[in-house]
């Protein structure tokens, strides 16, 4: 309809009738809303089930009659979450500290310093993004077990190091920061150098304060990656000592089986930290994704 | 101003050389921490995987057996050769179809005829090679490749199309655009273990499960969902069975999860890609009298093609890497219909302790990913419109 009208009136007057315009908009909103419902429904189902009694989860009510907040307490205790939660927090913090250090330094070097071998190194870094974990997993496991080279302490299985050190650098974060650092005007560095500034001081006093947004993005990606990690922690933790939340939840799924309300309470507990961080910073998060996704 | 003048003046002097030397040292020192970790945990393992795959390695290193682990996969190198020759012919046919005989009269038709013949020949040889490999090679591995391909074809195109449609709508003046974007992106960032558990429950085989109640509204009988190894087509009434009959219902539920969790990512990337298309082009088209649909099809789709290409690549690599949610959602009764290659490799290693076999399989997977990436670069890269 819109089509023929537009072609017939080659003159500039091309507004379609208000009625068809209204219907067009309505359809757009309808599609968006259906999409939103589909995306959000599993979360709603998770929360609603987590507040049901066991009976209600079997008869599949949409909502619990009386919210059973005690489910959270029970799930927390049943699944030994206090230990796992602390582990996840510590592992995430440690990984982030390392990740920030390595990627800011390397991002700065790649973005702002001219040195021999730079492009070659950067190319290698980028290529690692394509490598599937299946390939690196087994040698890394042997490395961490201390089979290939001797490690301080014999083996790193069931240690903090196994869960943090391998993730303290990644090509993605370096790439993201490099893109931003490279855009900083050269005049700033020239001026700083006249004042006797070396690279380290320039980085800390000038570059970092104006790069809060990309650094934040690295932090957020690092946070979700570390918090959501599953395969590797499953492999290198055999006891509760350093087992993180995701492996704990998986174990709980295997054990709790039919106790849907506890499972869902457990699932909600594991995603709350991610949700909080996401809602506080979602703007930077999506922007960060967009800028890295579109590597010019 | 002053500063840049000074730096130009000192360019040829000793101070400049000193600075260059200092830069060299600083550059290396700054990259060193990241380099160490990426070298040790990212690059060294590839070489070591190849090394391990040449041994009879079960928990501890055994005898050197050369290509035996690879022969277990392919049956024989001859099989692989036939298969690769089929692919090469296929690529050649594609090339002939598009490029050959452009200079002579009626060259296009000739090219299409010859190209089609070569394509068919390549296809036949590929299928023959596959059949031979299936006879003597590792069926588990080859099956896992089929499952992975089903999973990739089931998720990636749907994710691209839905992502583009949602982004395109959001790009119009939509009230609550931010809110929609936040919601769409939610499944992508939340832990896959936690959300896969919810899908487990929604798609459970109980008669009262949400999925069963939903299809019940349309009068359908309850299904076994995650526990159903039968192909979807079979359940729809077609007489097919086994892996050759298409993805199983169990795999379909995993595909649904995959789409659900990834569409938001594509939407966000497409959205920022749309923002980069110059407004003037749309305005020009509007004056020329193109309809909204015309504009979408003739402006947006070609202009956004670099993004589409990027997302397709990322998507395919992602499906070959996918692990967490499949591991959580799989059931024993779904048998091998949900075991993708990355799961198979993990099982070989983690459950069966056959490190040598597992690394050989992982290397083959890696080679496939590399090949796919190159092919996509070549095929799609040529068709992409870089404004």
Detailed description of the structure:
The complex is a heterodimer of chains A (296) and B (387). Chain A is an all-alpha fold and 296 residues long. Chain A folds into 2 domains: 2-50; 80-293, MetI-like fold (Orthogonal Bundle), CATH 1.10.3720.10. Chain A contains 15 helices and no strands. Chain A has helices at 2-8, 18-50, 54-59, 70-78, 81-112, 118-127, 133-145, 160-164, 171-182, 186-194, 199-210, 212-228, 231-236, 245-256, 260-293. In chain A, helix 5 packs antiparallel against helix 12 (212-228). The longest helix of chain A is centred in the last third of the chain and has 34 residues, at 260-293. The radius of gyration of chain A is 26 Å and the shape is globular. Chain B is mainly α and 387 residues long. Chain B has 3 domains: 2-52, no CATH class; 76-136; 138-383, MetI-like (MetI-like fold, Orthogonal Bundle), CATH 1.10.3720.10. Chain B is 74% helix and 0% strand. Chain B contains 17 helices and no strands. Chain B has helices at 2-9, 14-52, 68-74, 77-99, 107-136, 139-171, 177-189, 192-202, 210-216, 232-235, 249-275, 279-288, 292-303, 305-321, 324-329, 341-350, 355-383. The longest helix of chain B has 39 residues, at 14-52. The two termini of chain B are 35 Å apart. Residues 1-8 of chain B have low confidence and may be disordered.
Mean pLDDT of chain B: 87
Task: Give the end-to-end Cα distance of chain A, rounded to a whole number of Å.
Answer: 38 Å
The total of beta strands of chain B comes to 0
CATH overall fold name of the largest domain in chain B: MetI-like fold
Residues in helix, % of chain B:
over 70%
Backbone shape of chain A: globular
Mean pLDDT of chain A: 86
Radius of gyration of chain A: 26 Å
Q: What would you call the quaternary organization?
A: heterodimer
**Global geometry of chain B:** globular
The name of the CATH superfamily of the largest domain in chain B reads MetI-like
Give the amount of beta strand of chain A, in percent. Answer: under 5%
> What's the CATH H-level superfamily name of the largest domain in chain A?
MetI-like
CATH class of the largest domain in chain A: Mainly Alpha
Instruction: Report the portion of residues of chain B in β strands.
Output: under 5%
């Amino acid at each position: 309809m819109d089509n023929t009208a537009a072609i017939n009136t080659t003159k500039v007057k091309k507004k379609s009738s208000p009625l068809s315009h209204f219907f067009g908009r309505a359809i757009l909103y309808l599609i968006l809303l259906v999409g939103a419902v589909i995306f959000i429904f599993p979360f709603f189902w998770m929360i609603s089930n987590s507040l049901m009694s066991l009976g209600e989860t079997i008869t599949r009510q949409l909502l619990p009659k009386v919210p059973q907040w005690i489910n959270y307490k029970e799930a927390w205790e049943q699944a030994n979450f206090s230990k796992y939660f602390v582990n996840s927090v510590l592992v995430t913090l440690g990984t982030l500290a390392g990740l920030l250090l390595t990627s800011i330094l390397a991002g700065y070097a790649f973005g702002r310093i001219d040195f021999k071998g730079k492009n070659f190194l950067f190319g290698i870094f980028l290529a690692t993004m394509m490598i599937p974990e299946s390939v690196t997993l087994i040698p890394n496991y042997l490395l961490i077990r201390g089979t290939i080279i001797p490690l301080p302490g014999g083996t790193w299985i069931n240690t903090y190091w196994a869960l943090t050190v391998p993730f303290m650098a990644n090509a993605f974060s370096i790439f993201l920061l490099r893109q931003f650092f490279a855009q900083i005007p050269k005049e700033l560095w020239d001026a700083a150098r006249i004042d006797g500034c070396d690279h380290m001081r320039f980085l800390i006093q000038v570059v970092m304060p104006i790069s809060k947004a990309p650094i934040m993005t690295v932090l957020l990606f690092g946070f979700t990656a570390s918090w959501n990690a599953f395969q590797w922690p499953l492999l290198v933790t055999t006891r509760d000592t350093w087992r993180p939340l995701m492996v704990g939840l998986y174990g709980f799924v295997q054990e709790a089986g039919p106790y849907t309300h506890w499972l869902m309470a457990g699932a909600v507990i594991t995603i709350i930290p991610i949700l909080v961080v996401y809602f506080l910073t979602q703007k930077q998060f999506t922007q960060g994704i967009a800028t890295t996704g579109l590597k010019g | 101003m002053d500063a840049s003048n000074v730096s130009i003046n000192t360019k040829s002097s000793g101070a400049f050389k000193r600075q260059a030397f200092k830069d060299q040292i600083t550059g290396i020192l700054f990259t060193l921490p990241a380099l160490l970790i990426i070298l040790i945990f990212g690059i060294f393992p590839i070489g070591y995987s190849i090394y391990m795959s040449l041994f009879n390695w079960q928990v501890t290193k055994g005898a050197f057996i050369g290509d035996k682990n690879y022969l277990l996969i392919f049956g024989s190198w001859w099989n692989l050769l036939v298969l690769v020759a089929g692919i090469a012919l296929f690529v050649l046919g594609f090339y002939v179809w598009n490029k050959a005989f452009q200079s002579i009269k009626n060259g296009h038709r000739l090219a299409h005829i010859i190209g089609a013949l070569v394509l068919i020949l390549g296809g036949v040889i590929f299928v023959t090679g596959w059949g031979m490999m299936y006879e003597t090679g590792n069926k588990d591995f080859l099956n896992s490749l089929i499952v992975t391909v089903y999973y990739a074809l089931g998720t990636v195109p749907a994710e691209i199309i839905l992502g583009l449609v949602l982004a395109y709508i959001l790009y119009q003046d939509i009230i609550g655009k931010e809110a929609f974007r936040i919601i769409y992106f939610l499944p992508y960032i939340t832990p896959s273990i936690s959300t896969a558990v919810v899908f487990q429950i929604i798609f459970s085989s109980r008669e009262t499960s949400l999925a069963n109640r939903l299809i019940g509204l349309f009068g359908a009988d309850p299904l076994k969902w995650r526990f159903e190894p039968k192909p979807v087509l079979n359940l729809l009434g077609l007489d097919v069975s086994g892996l050759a009959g298409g993805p199983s219902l169990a795999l379909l539920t995993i595909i649904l999860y995959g789409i659900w969790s990834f569409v938001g990512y594509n939407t966000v990337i497409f959205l920022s890609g749309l923002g980069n298309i110059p407004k003037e082009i749309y305005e020009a088209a509007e004056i020329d009298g193109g309809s909204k649909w015309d504009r979408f099809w003739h402006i947006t789709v070609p202009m956004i093609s670099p993004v589409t290409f990027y997302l397709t690549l990322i998507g395919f690599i992602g499906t070959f890497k996918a692990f967490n949610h499949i591991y959580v959602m799989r059931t024993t009764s779904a048998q091998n219909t949900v075991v993708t290659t990355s799961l198979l490799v993990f099982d070989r290693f983690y459950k069966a302790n056959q490190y040598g076999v597992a690394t050989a399989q992982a290397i083959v997977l890696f080679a496939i990913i590399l090949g796919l990436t190159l092919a996509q670069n070549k095929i799609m890269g040529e068709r992409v419109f870089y404004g």
